Structures are given as structure tokens and as C-alpha cells.
Amino acid sequence: MAPKKLKKLSKENAAYLAGLIDGEGTITLTNKQKGAERQLVVSISNTEYDLLESVFKMTGVWKITSKRSTNQAHRTGHTFVLSNRQALELLSRMLPYLHSYKKQRAKLVIKNYIRLTPRNGKYTPALLAKREKFVKKFFEMKFSLQKQKISTKG
């Protein structure tokens, strides 16, 4: 079954989603299976289920997970998750509105993810080496941007 396509986003909705990603969200590469290469994931976590349901209505794609806390004082957390090509498509639409290191990560992913991720999951040694460089650069990005901010303040 083919993954669902994202709905067309208005500029306002793209900016709103970018704000949610900047504030409550994550752009990352994660291991979903042991021994497999990392996959692109864009997620938004919040305790307000209705907020995440509105994200579904805007995007037309739906995967929300819930996690109950063992602490009675904490509310149930929910996470809206997009992965791989759906996540890439969403990042492409939100890019002008993202800020901070998340915008830099999105640019890097948009430029490199497809060409470094074969659909069949089979990597040549050369492609695997390029992908490992890409992953390393991706995860170094947050630290290097924070370091730049510190050095420009002094």
C-alpha cells in the first residue's frame, strides 16, 4: 500500500506547522530497526491531542502515538509522526518558515536524503560512506550552531 500524499498546504498552515516543529517538534534521523540505516522522522509532541488532530486535518496524513506516564501528576503525551518521504515533503513545504538549527537540518535533508537513501535499502560501500558522512553532519549541526551563537555573543 502506497503512503498517503500530503495535502497542499496554504502559506499560513505551512508557517503554523513550522512554528510547531520549531517549538514542540523534532527533525531527526532514527533507527527504526536494529542494523538498518537511519530514517528521516519529523514529529510533534504535545499533551493536547486536539492540537495534533488539527495537524492531521492540515496534512491529511495520520500517525499519532500516545504514551501514558506512570506519574499520576503527568498528563498523557501524544506524538504526531511522519517519516521518510512524507517527512521530506513536509519539510520542503515548511522550509521558508523554519528557524534555528532545524532549518539547517531541513536544508541538509532536502538536498541529500533521496540521493543517499536507495528505496530498496541496498547500499554500495561508496554510497554507505557518503550516507555516514551525511548522518554525522546532520547530528553535529545542532551543536555547531549553538557554538556559533555563543561565540558571537562575546
Task: Explain what the structure shows.
Helix content is 51%, strand content 16%. The protein is an alpha+beta fold. The protein has a single domain, classed as Endonuclease I-creI (Roll), CATH 3.10.28.10. The protein has a four-stranded antiparallel sheet. Helix 1 crosses helix 3 and helix 4 packs antiparallel against helix 5. The longest helix is centred in the C-terminal third of the chain and has 29 residues.
Question: What key phrases describe this protein's structure?
Answer:
single chain; 5 helices; alpha+beta; globular; Homing endonuclease LAGLIDADG domain-containing protein; LAGLIDADG_dom; Endonuclease I-creI; about 150 residues; 4-stranded antiparallel beta sheet; endonuclease activity; 4 strands
Quick overview of this protein structure:
This protein has helices at residues 11-24, 49-59, 84-94, 100-112, 125-153, and strands at 25-30, 39-46, 64-67, 77-83. It is α+β, with helices and mostly antiparallel strands and 154 residues long. The chain has one domain (11-153): Endonuclease I-creI.
